Amino acid sequence: MSDLRSIAELKDVADPAWPELRELLGRADGHQTAEILPVAPEAGEKALHGIQVSAGSFLGALALHTGGVLVDHGWVRVLGGGSPELGLPSLAEANPALAERRGPAPALLVGYDVLGGRFEINGSDPARDGRPGEPGQLCYFQPENLEWKLLETPQRVFGHSMWLRFLILGNLTDFYWTLRWPGWQDDVAALRHDQGMSFYPPLPTLDGADEIAAADRRPVPVSELFSLYEEYRTAGIGTG
């Protein structure tokens, strides 16, 4: 652990990313909403030190200056320095394998949605972990078909900063158009930010927005959804 950079090295950088990131998040009004959650200074520094990423990156700026960001009425939760009172973990807390600092770098969970879909930065060997793409590229675990999808445009593959630009300036309505039900905004507003929506019949067995709207749904911890989808994959539910 002696090779870890100090908080001063990570925080006191010549070109901090926070001004640019703050300006980007402020442009959300005409696209998706983006609510920046506050973070206590010591919590932000702890998260920054935990992920060992400099404040010169959007990732480091999120950890240091925000408790996280709620995008599109809270449908997507972007991780930052953590907001325990709202149930949102910090980047460090959501990635406990980082604390071990052993072996190949793990994939990094950077956000999730209300369905339990996960946004993760690829680790050092994506193919070994059953993911598309290269190290450092951003993948999305699709809860509707239990598959990893590389996020990209025809011009380039997403990294973390491009993913944030997509969340703020892109079209999440199109991205999620088969997965939303009437009144989803009110349902999402009633959740803690460590909760998602569970469906019965299971989401991977439902075909499109009409079946999703007709299914029973209830709030559950997002961690429960993560585990549930792994169980579905093992059991072959919704994969064939």
From TrEMBL:
Under InterPro entries, the record lists: DUF2625
Protein name as it appears in the record:
DUF2625 family protein
Q: Which organism is it from?
A: Actinomadura rugatobispora
